[in-house]
Amino acid sequence: MLGDKRQYQLLYFVFFASSNGFLVFRNAYFEELGLSGSQMGLLGAVLVVGGMVAQPIWGGLADRFAASKPVLLIAAGVSSVVILAYPLAGTVPDPFLLLVLATALLSTVRSPIVPITNAMILSKGLDYGQVRAFGSIAFGLGSLVIGWLLSQYATEIVFYIYAVGMVVLVLIVRGVPDAEADLTPDLKTEALKLVTNKRFLLLLSVTVLLAGASASGSAYFAVYIRAIGASDGLTGTAWMLKTVGEAVIFLSMARIGLTNRTQLTLGAALYVGVYLVYAAVATTAAILAVQFVLGVGLALYNIAIVEFADRFAPEDLTSTGQAVLSAFGIGTGRALGELGAGGVMDAIGVQSMYYVLAVVALAALLLSLVFHGPTLRRLGTAAGVGQ
Q1: Could you tell me the pLDDT band of residue 378, with boundaries at 50, 70 and 90?
Q2: Under a CB-based contact definition with an 8 Å cutoff, are residues 234 and 225 in contact?
Q3: What is the pLDDT of residues 35-73, one digit of tens each?
Q4: What letter does residue 315 receive in the DSSP assignment?
């Protein structure tokens, strides 16, 4: 039998390997159906709004009844069926309504997979980066393979890959040991501590901005690549290089030893730089050159917010803390980003849209500096003494 660490690594590998085609190429598929940028943005927002509502409920159920494993089984099993509505949309005269309904349901049922798994990993004392790296590796390999497949097959194949992957995920989750029941007698009090924690609220604010910039940049990347005249193969190659950067940081961060606040600020800074390259340079060589940097930025930001949320959440609300972070931090950012970026793309074009995303990432960087408050005050005091 696989150990806990290997089981979670395999879980992440399968989840991200099967999800990447849907996440990276769905807007390219929507464009083939004739949808506008605003319609793509609305679907992207719906994809996360359902999760924003559902994730705290899923997290609360998992914490209240120690039901992490059943929640994961339901999420993977149901989403493997719902995803099949996407290729069906290509057979109806007006696909947009069907896509809205399917996206709303999919976002609700698949939303707890990542936050609940994160909470299970951290609750067992496992190194988050060592596990999460396998998701990055899978995402990169999968993007490379899917980029090649799309040169041979129709874009709809990405949805079938997701469906098969979720079936495999169900088999993996069945072998993961569930937590022992430990009912919390006063969930309301613990939840109040969480949502009134000033550091947690600051974390949510930074996450909204950076998640919005990151998710929008990723969602429209395949459209951007086609807009500059490059092939889908470049999209797959770029994602592969990006995930190499992610994997390096996830695997080595325990040895590098940066604080969470430094990880968050540095991650935001790297996003600013990469998005400026997308907007101002937009050549194949430049895009490939910055992918490793973008992967480093994503990994730094991801580690920082997950570990911050685990530190700030009460001990009995580990799943809820991750779910609230995912719903009201990442989810809000993604929803606003998808909606806003779609409209911006229609107005100024997908390439210039990355200037706007760079500004959003810069705002996240500036806000993250509040976490450095004690250090900045010490530096200010030292500078005053030296004058």
Answers
A1: low
A2: yes
A3: 988 888 888 888 878 888 888 888 878 877 778 899 999
A4: G
pTM over 0.85: no
**In 3-state terms, what secondary structure has residue 124?**
coil
Cβ proximity of 140 and 13 under 8 Å: no
d(CA 234, CA 354): 18
Distance CA 171, CA 11 (A): 10
Q: Determine the Cα–Cα distance for residues 282 and 31; give it in Å rounded to an integer.
A: 21
Give the whole-angstrom CA distance, residue 342 versus residue 215: 12
Tokens describing residue 192: 């109040």
Degrees (nearest 5) of the Cα angle 194, 200, 203? 155
Q: Which residue has the tokens 């803390």?
A: 321
Helix, strand or coil for residue 211? Answer: helix
- Asked if residue 279 lies in contact with residue 349, where contact means CB atoms within 8 angstroms, the answer is no
At 238-269, the pLDDT tens digits run 888 888 898 899 988 878 888 999 999 999 99
Q: Are 220 and 128 in contact (CB under 8 A)?
A: no
For 287-300, b/e burial (b = at least 16 CB within 10 A) is beebbbbbbbbbbb
pLDDT band at 382 (very low <50, low <70, confident <90, very high): very low
